[in-house]
Amino acid sequence: MAIEMSQFYQVFFEEAAEHLAAMESLLLSMDIDNPDEEELNAVFRAAHSIKGSSGTFGFTDMAEVTHVMETLLDMVRKGEARPSSDMVDACLVAGDVLRNLLGAHRGENEADREAALAICGRLEQLCRALSQDAAEGSLGSVGEGPVAGGNDFELNFVPDEAIRTNPALAENLLAELGGLGTVVSSDTGEERAHWRVRIQTDESADSLRGVIEFVAAPGSVMILPANVGILSSDEDGAYGFFEPVQADDADEAYGFFTELPPLPGGADDSAGETAYGLFEPAPAKPSTPPVAEEADDGSFGLFAPLEASTPVAKPEVVTGTAIEALPAPAVAAPTPSKMAKPTGDSGSIRVGVEKVDQMINLVGELVITQAMLTQAASRVDPVLHERLVNGLAQLERNTRDLQESVMSIRMMPISVVFSRFPRVVRDISQKLGKQVELKMSGESTELDKGLVERITDPLTHLVRNSLDHGVESPERRIEAGKRPSGTITLRAYHQSGNIVIEVGDDGAGLNRAKILSKARERGLPAHDGMSDAEVWQLIFEPGFSTADQVTEVSGRGVGMDVVKRNIASLGGRIEIESMGGVGTRMTVRLPLTLAILDGMSVGVGAETYIVPLGYVIESLQPTPAMMCSISGADRLVQVRGDYLPVISLREIFNVAGAQQDRTKGIMVILEADGARAALFVDALIGQHQVVIKSLEANYRRVPGISGATIMGDGHVALILDAAALVSMARRALPAAA
Amino acid sequence: MAKTVLTVDDSASIRQMVSFTLKSAGYEVVSANDGMDGLEKAKARQVNLVLTDQNMPRMDGLSLIKTLRGLPQYKAVPILMLTTESSDAMKSQGRAAGATGWLVKPFDPQKLIELVRKVIG
Q1: CATH superfamily of A413-591
Q2: Do domains A151-317 and A596-736 have the same CATH topology?
């Protein structure tokens, strides 16, 4: 029966990605001088886990990298070597390499084999350096146990071809082993193919291994303390059974095992004595436990019951490439670990996003149906149809709750995005020679999964930008009387139905004069009377960059406009606050979800439009004195000293029967991208939560419209793209003037 | 009645693989995602074989084996440990803790079935 491994790949991919992310954040937060033991264990466990499963699923390239990494981390974890920043760097690079390999297996990118080889070499070098240090630092600290005089090992290996065919060489080898200690017994097996040598020696298992590996078939060496009995294992050593630890009085429990011919005993504790006895180490009494059978590659084995003292004729003992030298005390304390979070998936299930999306869509339809029913029911007499009305009220509540809980399935904490920034900041600040501290808050703020995926790149760009242009070099900072190390602050929080993400720095701030002169150079509309907010918005213009020098990190003038476009496509906006010498803060506002919007419905003629509530500042009815005409048309409205361009939906969308007299309609003041405009409508209708339907998917893109929705009465209402309307209005002004 | 195997591993992919493999070989499978969880599941339902990873958060494999061996109902139940190296040290520790045998990761599903058949039939 063949088991199709590919069915487990997806789970493995997700799991490996989680482990890599956890490993990276642990490495970044690690205090090198005083590392937390549990953190070291968690990093080790992540590497170890990836290694185990990648090997099992046949992703050997990943297994190789994690193997070396694990060896290195194991040394550190056991306290044999101190962690160094070099080591952390190497592990971070290894994490990148693993991510690349993982991506390659997922078919997302090309595998970078050279990088994989390079990092393996670098990690191996570190391992060697560390083990040397450790050996110099304290004798025999690599592995515990080897104490002078008292080691009793059983060596199992398959010798190489030369020894198998040449008895003289075999004699030599035995003599050489004899030189290392006392050979208690030796069995070279049939045709000298499988050696089992019991030796009492002062040498450690490692040095014995060093001698034997020279003459043994690769990966075939297994060195066991002689008191570990192996009953049997399969021909290729993939598994094995232990011989039970010496028991005082075997009761029926053992009988169960002895009845099965090749099977070992399982219980190693006498029935009378309870648990504590089990924690005693196996008695170090010399014994010659037989290996009944063991796999050629050492992948499994069973230990023989102690009673079975007859040596087995043909031991086939071969192990994989065991690097671990000697036992370290196992971490037995059941302390809650930080790793438990990403891997502990008890009580959770993984569901395909499309299933959730389908559910969200259906709930959206339900919301519309419910609104229709409510509207229809508003015409019946509530006294006569009390139960109907009550039922509908309950339906409304249930629908709202259902909608909320369905939406929350798609919600993810923003820490998913934030978690990459410690690394970004570390790498870039190193590259730029700046000292930067990253502060994050509100990591648990939740937002839609779709937003999480699409906000990552824009945010990364903003952080890079702050690092490169915001925070000054340590010298410049000291000159300015600041601490040499700068701070980048990432904050996320909810504010009136929006999620707000701030990227702030305590750097030099934006230079107004420089931006203005650069803007003029590029032929952008810029004048000295512009407000600061408007000036700052100029940096989002395509091709704009004030960097005097193009650096590796940023300054090529690509990016900020893309950042703004990306954020706008998510229904969000970005604002900049900056003060010379104090710092800059970029604030990104995003809707909580891409599926539902808080909107104000307005009437123009027979049409209803939805204005996203986040853009609305205020509404007012203009008096004739407030209106200003340009070229005979009322193009401006004066609101408390500010002249705002008027957006007339009647003109833009050619709406028939709409109010033309400005003083008889209502001005809704909108603010987008730091600029304001007044939207002229006939009437305000109300405030709704609307389910967004894409106009592009159902019709085509229309400038000034961001989507559509179905109202409670079944009519379609268009959702206005406030940002686009404001900029259209402001662009139209100079043309009309 | 089908024999029940408890598989304890913090890796979801390995858990799924072991579970699928053993189920297709006709065993019932209970999964646990760390030693602590494994202990609870083993207490809640008597199983015929425990298959445990070593390196796990909260409670590692060795501690699980030791704790299980301290329970009267698990004194004689075979416990196999999954180890990533066929590390000698790990084997001697496993044996001392009371494991019945070991299986080296990475492993072939066939090998797993072979081993489990050997132990519980």
Answers
A1: Histidine kinase-like ATPase, C-terminal domain (3.30.565.10)
A2: no
Distance from the A566 Cα atom to the nearest Cα atom in chain B, whole angstroms: 35
What is the ipTM metric for this complex?
Answer: 0.81
> Tokens in use for A479?
């000159």
Compute the C-alpha angle A102/A107/A113, nearest 5°. 55
Question: What CATH code would you report for A2-141?
Answer: 1.20.120.160
pTM of the predicted structure, to 2 decimals: 0.50
The first and second tokens of residue B17, run together, are 């693989």
**Three-state SS at A207:** helix
- When CB atoms are compared, the residue of A234, A279, A321 closest to B114 is A234
Task: Determine whether the interchain pair B93/A330 forms a contact, defined as Cβ–Cβ distance below 8 Å.
Answer: yes
Return the structure tokens found at A517. Answer: 């002169």
Q: Does A59 touch chain B (CB under 8 A)?
A: no
d(CA A609, CA A705): 9
Range with top average pLDDT, A203-217, A477-491, B99-113 = A477-491
Sign of CA dihedral A26, A27, A33, A38: positive
pLDDT reading at A230 higher than 70: no
pLDDT greater than 80 at residue A636: yes
Q: Do A320 and B85 make contact, defined as CB atoms within 8 angstroms? A: yes
Q: According to CATH, what is the number of the domain A151-317?
A: 3.30.70.1110
Q: How far is A424 from chain B (nearest CA, A)?
A: 28
The average pLDDT across B43-69 equals 86
How far is the C-alpha of A562 from the C-alpha of A384, rounded, in Å? 59
pLDDT, tens digit, 9 for 90 and up, residues A641-695: 888 899 888 888 888 888 888 888 899 999 877 788 999 999 998 887 787 777 7
Comparing CA positions, the residue from B98, B81, B22, B113 lying closest to residue A301 is B81
Domain ranges of chain A: 2-141, 151-317, 353-410, 413-591, 596-736
Q: Is the CB of A320 less than 8 angstroms away from the CB of B78?
A: no
Q: What is the three-state SS of chain B?
A: CCCEEEEECCCHHHHHHHHHHHHHCCCEEEEECCHHHHHHHHHHCCCCEEEEECCCCCCCHHHHHHHHHCCHHHCCCCEEEEECCCCHHHHHHHHHHCCCEEEECCCCHHHHHHHHHHHHC
Residues in B closer than 8 angstroms to A254, CB to CB, are 76
Best mutation site among B66, B81, B102, B120 for testing chain A: the one with the most A CBs within 10 Å?
B102
Question: Three-state SS for A408?
Answer: helix
Contact B101 A8 (CB under 8 A): no
CA distance linking residue A434 with residue B61, whole number of Å: 45
**Which stretch, A267-271, A496-500, A591-595, B114-118, has highest mean pLDDT?**
B114-118
Contact A225 B88 (CB under 8 A): yes
Fold of A596-736: SH3 type barrels. (2.30.30)
